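dude i think i finally got it to work??
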Amino acid sequence: MTSNYCDYVRYVRTPEVAAWIAFSEEDQRWHVEVFARTARGIEYLETEYHGEQPPLKQLQRDAYHYGFFSARPCRLEHRFDPSMTHGVLAMLRHWCQMRSVDFEALLRKAYADEPHRLDEDLDAIVTQAEWEGIEYPAANDRYQTRRLLLALRDVGYDKIAAAFVPLAREHG
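look at this
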């Protein structure tokens, strides 16, 4: 979601669409992030609206028309794009659970100077990733660990990737 200070935030998920809708007093705009399902993936759109809060059907239509397609399920063997942040975090959490690594400690290390980043609801992130479509890796080998590190970087989680490198070497 956008990093603007928002006075109103709403999250909606139906079988067809998931959206974050936030109103910012600062710029008097609705900031939205929309995931609309298709047969082979999702259409992803991050944008802003003026005026009244946009209805869910409009967000869905706009995602189909202006969004970009991202194949699902999200899996380590495929290319990652910025819409896959939920899937990558879910895979990282899964990796940590399989190796008895403290996932939240990893996030605290990555964002030591940004405590607000730790307020995210990790269960909600996994639920969103599963709604979008995710395939957890079956093999827990070095190749999968390397792919996970690259995925973290692909979606812009460079700080998490840097904190993950020593764990990957130790548990990979």
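The chain is about 40% helix and 20% strand.
im so relieved honestly
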